[in-house]
Amino acid sequence: MVAPERDVTADVDAILARVGARTKVVFLANPNNPTGTYLPFKEVRRLHAGLPKHVLLVLDAAYAEYVRRNDYESGIELAGTAPNVVMTRTFSKIYGLAALRLGWCYGPEHVIDALNRIRGPFNVSAPAMAAGIAALADQAHVEKSAAHNEAWLLRLSATLTKIGLDVVPSVGNFILIHFPREKGRDAEAADAFLSGRGIVLRRVGVYGFPGALRMTVGTAEANERTIAALTEFMGKRPSQ
Questions:
Q1: What is the mean pLDDT of residues 138-152?
Q2: Which of 41, 69, 111, 123 has the fewest Cβ atoms within 10 angstroms?
Q3: Exposed, middle or buried: residue 140 (CB in 10 Å: 0-12, 13-18, 19+)?
Q4: What are the structural domain ranges in the chain?
Q5: Strand runs (DSSP E) across the chain, as ranges?
Q6: Which residues, at least 6 apart from 209, have a Cβ–Cβ distance to it below 8 Å?
Q7: What is the rounded distance in angstroms from the CA atom of residue 155 to the CA atom of residue 148?
Q8: How do residues 30-63 score in pLDDT, each as one tens digit?
C-alpha cells in the first residue's frame, strides 16, 4: 500500500493512517526518489513513535550524502537505538559504484541476524567488497562530488525555472522537472526532443508524474548541453 504525498513530500499522517493490523514493514525513502524532497528528522521520529512496536521502519537513505540541511539525519542514530528501525545505504550514488550492486544496512541485532540467515551465500562479490572498502577511504571524492552537486542543483533549478519549467526543490543528485501540459511542450515532446540530441532524461510516469522528467546532475558539460537543449525546446513553437 502506498500513502499519498503532500506537496510531493512524504506525509507522516497519511502513512500512519494506512498502518493496520496486517502491516509488518513501513518503507520511507528519505530523500525521496524521484522528487528529491525529504522529511526533517523530527518528522521521521514522529512517524516512528506512531508505529506499533511490531512494525519495522526501514529508512532508505540512498541519497543521504548529498543532503545539506541542518534538520536532516540519515537515521543511523535511530536505527542504533530502536528495536524496530533499519537504515539502508548504497554505494551506487555518491560513490559511483552502481554496477557493483553494493549496499549495506544498519539496525538491531535481531533484524540483521534474520537478514543474514535468508540472504544468498554469495550475494556480494569479493571485487565489489574491495571496491566498497576503497571508496569509503576516498573522502576527497565524496566531498568533491557533494560540492559539485550542490552548486549544480542551484544553477539547474534557477536556469530551468527562468525558461518556464517547474522544478521541484531537491536535496538529492537529481531534479524533477514538470513540463507544460500544452501539446508539443509536454514531457513526452521534451523527451523526444532531447533524445534526438543524444540527451536522456528519465520518464517518471510509473511514479505518478506523467508530465515530468527526472534529470540527474551530471558533469558540467552534460549539464550545459541539457540546459541549452531545454532552452531551445521551450523557445520553439508547439507546432514545430
A1: 97
A2: 123
A3: exposed
A4: 12-125, 140-235
A5: 25-29, 56-60, 85-90, 103-106, 166-168, 174-178, 202-204, 209-216
A6: 34, 176, 178
A7: 11
A8: 999 999 999 999 999 999 999 999 999 999 999 9
| pLDDT tens sequence across 60-88 | 999 999 999 999 999 999 999 999 999 99
Strands 85-90 and 56-60: parallel
- CA 216/CA 62 separation, integer angstroms: 14
When computed from its CA atoms, the radius of gyration of the chain, rounded to whole angstroms, is 20
Q: Which residue has the cell 558539460?
A: 221
Separation of alpha carbons 187 and 11, rounded Å: 26
Strands 25-29 and 56-60, by their bridges, are parallel
Q: If we measure between CA atoms, which residue out of 181, 154, 164, 167 comes closest to residue 232?
A: 164
Position 1 scores a pLDDT of 85
| DSSP state for residue 10 in the 8-state scheme | -
Query: Could you give the dihedral angle defined by the CA atoms of residues 240, 206, 102 and 144, in that order, rounded to the nearest 10 degrees?
Result: 40
Listed range (10-19, 116-125, 170-179) with the worst mean pLDDT: 116-125
What is the CATH architecture of 12-125? 3-Layer(aba) Sandwich (3.40)
Identity of the amino acid at 29? A
CATH number for the region 140-235 comes to 3.90.1150.10
What's the pLDDT score for residue 121?
86
Could you give the CA distance from residue 68 to residue 71 in angstroms, rounded to a whole number? 9
Closest CA to 226 of 189, 186, 198, 185: 198
- Grid cell of 196 as nine digits: 534526438
Q: How far is the CA of 36 from the CAs of 67, 105, 137, in angstroms?
A: 10, 21, 27
